[in-house]
């Protein structure tokens, strides 16, 4: 049971991380988490090559540890799917986040719901696997029918708990995106 609940928890955490990379019109350093910069031939995360700060609400400043990394950071940002154009002042890379349009907000809200539904499906698949494992234990004579029913009840309660968590995440992120 703990193994399956751990998998459900990881699904929720994965969704939270994914939602952290969706920009809501405000500068969020986590939007750069998935971007890899070519650091002397090695793909390295942004935190490994630079300091990322938020000087203003819709501006990110990326200050590389080494000045010659500015070009590599700009290349990595342009190659990503962020849709942002970096500029630099010779010492750091600056990203300006434009105000989101209403259409873009609605598009992002749909994407948030789609990712949330995918996470719910993943949790339900884990529930199915857990139920199958319990039925196998019963067939093998390791547990009784009553124990199987108790375990299935626990599995369903855990599933309901994590699906409710996912719903909360969807609602809060959608509200964040739709707030102008």
Describe this structure in words.
With 180 residues, this protein is an alpha+beta fold. The strands form two sheets. Strands 3-4-6-5 form a four-stranded antiparallel beta sheet. The protein contains five helices and six strands, in the order H-E-E-H-E-E-H-E-E-H-H. Helices cover 58% and strands 15% of the residues. It is elongated, with a radius of gyration of 22 Å. The longest helix is centred in the last third of the chain and has 38 residues, at 102-139. The protein starts with a helix and ends with a helix.
The stretches of 5 or more residues where confidence is low (pLDDT under 50) are: none
Please tell me what the overall shape is.
elongated
The percentage helix is 55-70%
Radius of gyration, whole Å: 22 Å
The percentage of residues in β strands lies in 15-25%
Largest sheet: 4 strands, antiparallel
Number of strands: 6
Across the major sheet, the strand order is: 3-4-6-5
Element-level helix/strand string: HEEHEEHEEHH
Determine the number of helices (DSSP H or I, runs of at least 4 residues).
Answer: 5
End-to-end separation: 43 Å
Structural category is alpha+beta
What's the average pLDDT? 87
Overview features:
about 60% helix, 6 strands, alpha+beta, four-stranded antiparallel beta sheet, elongated
Q: Can you give me a brief rundown of this structure?
A:
The chain is an alpha+beta fold and 180 residues long.
Write the SSE topology.
Layout: H1 2-20, E1 36-39, E2 42-45, H2 46-49, E3 50-56, E4 59-64, H3 70-79, E5 87-88, E6 93-96, H4 102-139, H5 145-178
Antiparallel strand pairs: 1-2, 3-4, 4-6, 5-6
């Amino acid at each position: 049971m703990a193994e399956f609940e751990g998998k459900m928890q990881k699904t929720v955490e994965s969704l939270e991380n994914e939602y952290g990379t969706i920009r809501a019109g405000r500068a969020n350093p986590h939007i750069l988490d998935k971007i890899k910069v070519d650091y002397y031939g090695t793909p390295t995360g942004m935190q490994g090559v630079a300091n990322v700060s938020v000087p203003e609400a819709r501006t990110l400043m990326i200050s590389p540890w080494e000045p010659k990394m500015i070009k590599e950071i700009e290349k990595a940002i342009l190659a990503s799917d962020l849709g942002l154009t970096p500029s630099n002042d010779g010492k750091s890379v600056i990203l300006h986040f434009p105000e989101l349009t209403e259409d873009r907000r609605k598009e992002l809200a749909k994407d948030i719901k789609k990712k949330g539904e995918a996470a719910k499906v993943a949790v339900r698949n884990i529930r199915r696997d857990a139920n199958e494992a319990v039925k196998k234990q019963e067939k093998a004579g390791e547990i009784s029918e009553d124990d199987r029913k108790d375990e299935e009840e626990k599995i369903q309660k855990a599933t309901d708990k994590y699906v409710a968590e996912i719903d909360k995440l969807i609602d809060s992120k959608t509200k964040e995106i739709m707030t102008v």
